[in-house]
Amino acid sequence: MGEEELTLEKVVEVFEKSWDELAYEYEERIRAPIWCSESDIQLHLAHKLLNKLPKGYVHTELKIPLEVEKFSWSLWLGGRVTAKKCIRPDIVIINPYRLVPKLIAEVKFTPVYWGFGPIIEALLAKEENREKEYIFITSVKNALEKDIKYLKICQEYGPLERELKAYTKNMDKLIGILNDFKSIEEEVVAGYLCVLDEVYPDIEERLKREIEKYNPPEQIKLIVKHYPTIELLEEALTKLQALT
Q1: On the CB side of 67, how many CA atoms lie within 13 Å of its CA?
Q2: 108 forms bridges with which residues in the sheet?
């Protein structure tokens, strides 16, 4: 990809395509524990971006000073940002030749921590007529019943205020930075909050309302992918109940 092609629109296109790919591939989590933490999500997204963008454009946890005029100067002078008052976004895409950011993204991950290994093993145990595994099958079933009940209570009441704040804790600073880059540096920078969620089906609407409290500029975008993992757990529970 040539330098002349890397407009803001192109960066946004590449970023959203990479996120869509990651969200689609995430479904593999039910077969193997390849997505174990928020850092894993950030790592896989950064890997996709590195494969699509030129060298030097993709960074993780790159400091962005609250005084945005210090950003380019710090990188040009010392090769890093040393400002104490700053945010450290999960993903930053910059033009390394002009030393200005193109895109700043925060990535959040709310999984249901339930390994599908015990479920698969329990189902296979019964299919193979291993009656000695009855206690194991029953324990898996009981654990599923307990956790599904708890997760449904969580869904009914929705995320706590502190959970929503955890998603948007830097939103006021990020919005201030985007506004200042536009007004002071005359640079329009795209801002993203990207969320993978397995617990709350309505998390997108709730986060939209939360973000609106900060009067966000038009270049801020929320991207949410919710996976109905609880439904998958219920399907597994039904199969286990039929075997006991």
Answers
A1: 9
A2: 195
